[in-house]
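INPUT
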Amino acid sequence: MAEFLNSINKIILILEYDGRRYHGFQWQANAPTVQAELEQAIEKVTGENLRVIAASRTDAGVHATGQVVSFRTSSRLSAQTLARALNYYLPEDIAVKGACQADADFNVRRHALSREYEYRIITSRSRLPLAQGSAYIVPYELNIKEMNKACELLKGKHDFASFAAALRPLRDTVREVYEARVTSEGHLHTFYMVANSFLPHQVRNTVGLLIRLGIEKVGLDKFRHIMEAKKPGLAGPAAPARGLCLTKVNYPIDLEFAI
Amino acid sequence: MAEFLNSINKIILILEYDGRRYHGFQWQANAPTVQAELEQAIEKVTGENLRVIAASRTDAGVHATGQVVSFRTSSRLSAQTLARALNYYLPEDIAVKGACQADADFNVRRHALSREYEYRIITSRSRLPLAQGSAYIVPYELNIKEMNKACELLKGKHDFASFAAALRPLRDTVREVYEARVTSEGHLHTFYMVANSFLPHQVRNTVGLLIRLGIEKVGLDKFRHIMEAKKPGLAGPAAPARGLCLTKVNYPIDLEFAI
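OUTPUT
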């Protein structure tokens, strides 16, 4: 029995996916999800019907370049061999970028110190077919300086209830934001946000409110007022999913992904 | 009769498209092409069944951010209004980015001084779902310094027969290359090439040979030898279309595109 337990390995994967075809990461009964594709591929490689855990449950349409997932397997394949085999079975729009083994008690969700997200906005009066799959095209100029002033207000430990989806009541809406800023490269403006964890729709509602500020429909005072009201649904409207990407999950230990 | 002639306008459009769904720019009987989509949209807006002319006939799968096309219309709509109306009817993966009016004798193909192309290569051992639609993922390191030495050989007026597709004999294979270089940003390597005009498959065959050089399968001497042999099909193999993008067409006059 001890031998049987020892023969189970905890595998950690880092994933990139184009979220457009998926109803989010998490398994759903009647819709394609990243989790379902990954679990199917794992079953093809190992013969095991198992559940994976993700560091961050990305929403429908949201992309990832650094999603982290884990699963336990009795397969004797090395993490790298497993990764390459999974890539063979995964669809074109999902890829394993690296894999490693971890201690049995390592939990990709609970042990994550922070998550990093990027939201890409392009200011353009015309559609941009090559960019529009991974960015939100906004047909007016944005006051990036003012948006960065609002970003300063977001930093630190706050009750972000106003930035949560109005759908479901949450027990605890306090989060700690380590970084929030907008950087520009020509017409491409990237909002970068790092927090210990995020409320549902928090980044997209933040971007929605930042854009209202950037086009000068609301001022910094109103931004502060919305933040302090702590009322779900007040921020937003949620910016479209296609601009959002989970780029990194940070842990207290260095995970040495290889492929 | 004079009035009738005066009422015909020459319209110039600048187009962006994601080439993945199309069998190239040029009209084909039984395959979707950018030209067919554009001519259909024009017919919906103006009621006219006409032919457009493009500055560069991009191949199947090749993208554009700066394709230039022209057509003659008796529509009284302004160029900008036409552009916005066309965008309403064009599919998601083709967009008019700007429009202007030009003299009746302006020819987007004959009057072009040069065309600019970019080819994006990413060196990565794993697939990259978010990048692979607009880049060629190469699973080994490239010697970019050596590739840039070869780029120097390409500059100037040369007979580029070895870089032409082997398919069809060409009368004149001399072209003048104004710029050729590879720039790197992390794992993204962009090959940039400007010439008065290009032979069929010239950029993709050039990239194919540059990659063989970058992975040290051929040396600079062999590169020079292939170039001097002037034999269609010697360079290559053609790098995949998805990495290639027509970025700009230059004219002796400034076309003031607006939308």
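end of record. The CA atoms of residues 159 and 174 of chain B lie 4 Å apart.
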